[in-house]
Amino acid sequence: MDTEELLETLQAADLSYYQANAYVTLLGLGTASATEVAQASDVPDARIYDVLRDLDDFGYVELYEQETFQARATDPETIVSGLTDRASALESAAAEIEDRYERPTLDTQTVSIVKRFDTVLEAARTFVRDADTQIHATLTPDQFDALRGDLADARDRGVTVNVTMFALDGDEPLGDADYEGAVSVAHRLSRPGPFVLTSDLRRTAFAPNPAAVEDYGLILRNRSFTYVFFWHFLLFMWIPSPVAYEADATGPKRYADIRQFLLENRDRIGGDEPLHVEIEGRETDSDRSVTITGEVVDAENLSEGDADEARAPSVLALTGTASMIVDDGERRWTVGGWGATYEEVEANRIRVTGVGAELDAEPAE
After folding, report:
1. Domain Transcription regulator TrmB C-terminal spans what residues (predicted)?
2. Which residue, among 125, 254, 258, has the nearest Cα to 199 in the 3D structure?
């Protein structure tokens, strides 16, 4: 241990910088006058007497007068014993802290701002494990690899997992085998972007683009805030990017958002062949879970800026009213999307079970 480290250690043992400096100087000098200690150390002349008296009170030095005011270091046995006991107590405290430590959860916080991406990633992993219906995420290949096991478990539980994968220059493109079992649909985007993961439209883990000047992360347990991030995902990361993988491209298509369903099936609804769906959601008046199977007989999905039915559907159609009517053979249900209030059902997942006379009997995931 060099002198600087010794000084820092003595300060950690409750000596001031001047006290530690004077004591270490006396260890080298043996016996010296106050003036000699001041000259050989960093202690100012005006402070040296007070500093030495404090060290005398602590038992580090002994003061006496012999023509001049003299000081000498005491036998270090007592000091060493005290420092050893202190070190042992600190080691015991460290061990006890490790024994008692449990990783704190973020359940009590609606919004948390964090500094480390590892914290954001751990929250994302928790949100994936908590998901019941849908996960939407923008990931790099490394981030996908870190979450893949949990995403696969979510898929096994029947959760819809939609991922936009960032594919930058030099990145090895992922193949179907990489996605299989962990992803419902994957899109590919050839530019960098933020880390975003939403779970059940209730929870969000976010970290900015690595090229951003500010380094921070957000962990949200809030439906309203989460929907803002979901819209960012949908408009900027999902719709503009091409499909790279689809779990069952030939089977019935599943949707986690009513707006995307209505946008893609706009021409089928009210067409010559009936469009049959299975909807999992909740009744808005009782908050009870409900599953509806039937035909979509009407829908509304137009914003004021996209009301011309002759025009091709655009992203603007996502910004307006989104609702539909489903006839299950006994009654007609009004179905809305996230935050549905006036409709009877808030849809969490929509599965196309058939177009025309043929129906798919496969149960929902």
Report:
1. 111-353
2. 125
* Shared-domain flag, residues 117 and 169: yes
Q: Where are any strands of DSSP class E within 259-331?
A: 275-283, 289-300, 323-327
Q: Which residue type occupies 200?
A: D
Alpha helix positions (H), 131-222 = 141-156, 176-179
pLDDT tens, 344-357?
A: 999 888 888 887 76
Identify the pLDDT of residue 304. 43
Residues 227 and 135 in one domain: yes
**Same domain for 341 and 270:** yes
d(Cα 29, Cα 68) in Å, to the nearest integer?
Answer: 16
Identify the three-state secondary structure at position 205.
Answer: strand
Given a cut of 50, whether residue 310 has pLDDT beyond it is no
Q: Which residues pair with 336 in a beta bridge?
A: 323, 346
Taking the complete model, does pTM exceed 0.70, yes or no? no
Q: Where in the sequence is the domain holding 344, given as residue range(s)?
A: 254-355
Degrees to nearest 5, angle at CA 47 with 8 and 18: 5
Of 9-23, 99-113, 129-143, 253-267, give the range with the top mean pLDDT: 129-143
Instruction: For tokens 């991406």, name the residue.
Output: 117
In a domain, 7, yes or no: yes
Q: Enumerate residues 6+ apart whose C-beta is below 8 A from 270.
A: 297, 298, 299
| Sign of the four-CA dihedral 333, 334, 337, 341 | negative
Give, to the nearest 10 degrees, the angle between helix 17-29 and helix 3-12. 130
At 57-112, the pLDDT tens digits run: 888 888 877 667 788 888 777 778 777 887 888 788 888 777 766 555 555 457 88
Whether residue 309 lies inside any domain: the answer is yes
Query: At a CB cut-off of 8 Å and minimum separation 6, what does 274 contact?
Result: 295, 296, 355, 356
Is residue 259 within 8 A of residue 265, CB to CB? The reply is no
